[in-house]
Amino acid sequence: MRTRTGPIPTQTHEPSIEVSGRLGPRYGEILTPEALAFLTELHHRFGARRHDRLADRMRRRFEIGNGHDPQFRDDTRHIRDDAEWKVAGAGPGLEDRRVEITGPTDPKMTINALNSGAKVWLADQEDATSPTWENVIEGQLSLRDAIRGELEFTSADGKRYEVTATETPTIVMRPRGWHLPEQHLSFTDRTGRTMAASGSLVDFGLYFFHNAQQLIANGRGPYFYIAKLESSEEAKLWDDVFTFSERYIGIPHGTIRATVLIETLPAAFEMEEILFELRDHCAGLNAGRWDYIFSIIKNYRGRGARFVLPDRSEVTMTVPFMRAYTELLVKTCHKRGAFAIGGMSAFIPNRRDPEVTQRAFEKVAADKKREAGDGFDGTWVAHPDLIPVARAEFDAVLGEHPNQLDRQRPEVEVGAADLIDVHIGRPITAAGVHGNVSVGIRYIEAWLRGLGAVAIDNLMEDAATAEISRSQVWQWIHQDRTTEDGTPITREYIEGLIAQVLGEVDRRDGDRFDDAAAVFREVALGNDFPAFLTLPAYSRFLVEIE
């Protein structure tokens, strides 16, 4: 019998992307053969590395959960100690970012954002967008039309919307994070293995492929907010995606500009390293306050009572760990020539309630005054009426200057212990627990109906604030916490609140409150802790394959 020697032959397939989602009107303008070929190349070249980085996240979360607090890395000390390197900085249209408006990319919200008077619009395909297939593709259509000056919209009641501003904000698009799949597109690799596409690569790839050249012709460029990063290795992956993409369509290296949200605890320990890996493409960092709080809870949820936070409303930007993180961010950015962009206060005006509106103006003004005074170069708002409030606070500090990059903050010294100093000294109240259950269920219900940014009790809620709400409940239960009046926070107690909330909301035909309650139970009351509530909710309720 003859023995075969040499390599064992393996079957190879041509990598491909297949569309399994429903094709609506004009979807073919986005899902063109050329665009799908580009998505195929992105997945072929970077998909495996994405999975490696997600595995790294799990290992790091396991280590922190088992008592290994994060530290500043010894193996990258040379990057932090080298004072010479700088990031690319602002691209055309990003020189002044003092007020940025955030919001989803449906036609009405796109037009409102472009008419808002903000300097920048964060066109959000991430936490402010429920990732229904319609939202994913029709958001791309809105952006395509807006960039070409072709967008208009007529509502069901006959009201017509169009872009009327003579100067529109610079668009910075935010794709979904590395963890989220896009199950309406499937990628088959060379071995014949088929898997869901990456939401990050789909959102980035479709927007970049269709719009980069037009954005450059408009005097701007392909700019991105990068969400949920946890390490400099993840930043390096994005940088390689950017470099390949620029080469693929034939634009100069460094045309892309990225602003990274520092919204996870591990990333706070690697800000300089993240800037370094993205230095040819980086414009700055943003203080993603809500996801940062969620990340603290997620990583320390099992580490005992010392790491339990009180009511969500008590976790303000002035508590020790939030103060340390934001001051370190400003210092780090300005050291490297990067913009530091502040976060979003959740308070929003109510045009039918002057008292609520006045309170929102006061809260937002105080928040933006603090950020401008700390050295931030700009900030976020969630509502057009808040733009003058925020602008006034930054104008008072910036004057005619476009930024504060020359403010170096040498007095700021932040150690590893400061970033995890979560002692606040405030109680958990019954109202706080009820509020978390109520916000969690009401937000998830809207999310299941395709809404990603929702006004609830005069606060703007998105996926990040819902994550805080459900993760606090999970932690309070598993750490045997009680409310201020001595009531144990148990599963049974929360079940009673779920029933109460379902009795309080206005029910209507076709609502998703029962499904929302089921999702909330899974992510807040289960023994396991899903890394993101959007993962099980997406798989169970938003995937509609033709």
For the secondary structure, the number of strands is 15
- Outline the biggest β-sheet: 8 strands, parallel
General form:
globular
**Per DSSP, what share of the residues sits in E-state strands of 2 or more residues?**
5-15%
The rounded distance between the terminal residues' Cα atoms is: 51 Å
Q: Percent of residues in helical segments?
A: 40-55%
Going across the major beta sheet, what is the strand order? 6-3-2-13-12-11-10-9
Radius of gyration over C-alpha positions, nearest whole angstrom = 23 Å
Low-confidence stretches: none
Total helical segments: 19
Mean pLDDT: 96
Structural class: alpha/beta
Can you put this structure into words, describing what you see?
Helix 15 crosses helix 17 (491-504). The strands form 4 sheets. This protein has an 8-stranded parallel β-sheet. It has a 3-stranded antiparallel β-sheet with strand order 1-7-8. A two-stranded antiparallel sheet has the order 4-5. The protein is globular and about 65 Å long. The model has no long low-confidence stretch (mean pLDDT 96). The protein is of the alpha/beta class and 546 residues long. The protein contains 19 helices and 15 strands.
Describe the secondary structure blueprint for this structure.
Elements: E1 16-19, H1 27-30, H2 33-65, H3 77-81, E2 99-103, H4 107-114, E3 120-124, H5 133-147, E4 152-154, E5 160-162, E6 170-174, E7 181-188, E8 194-198, H6 199-217, E9 223-226, H7 232-249, E10 257-262, H8 265-268, H9 271-277, E11 282-287, H10 289-300, H11 320-335, E12 339-344, H12 354-374, E13 378-381, H13 387-398, H14 416-419, H15 430-448, E14 454-456, E15 459-461, H16 463-478, H17 491-504, H18 513-525, H19 534-542
Parallel strand pairs: 2-3, 2-13, 3-6, 9-10, 10-11, 11-12, 12-13
Antiparallel strand pairs: 1-7, 4-5, 7-8, 14-15
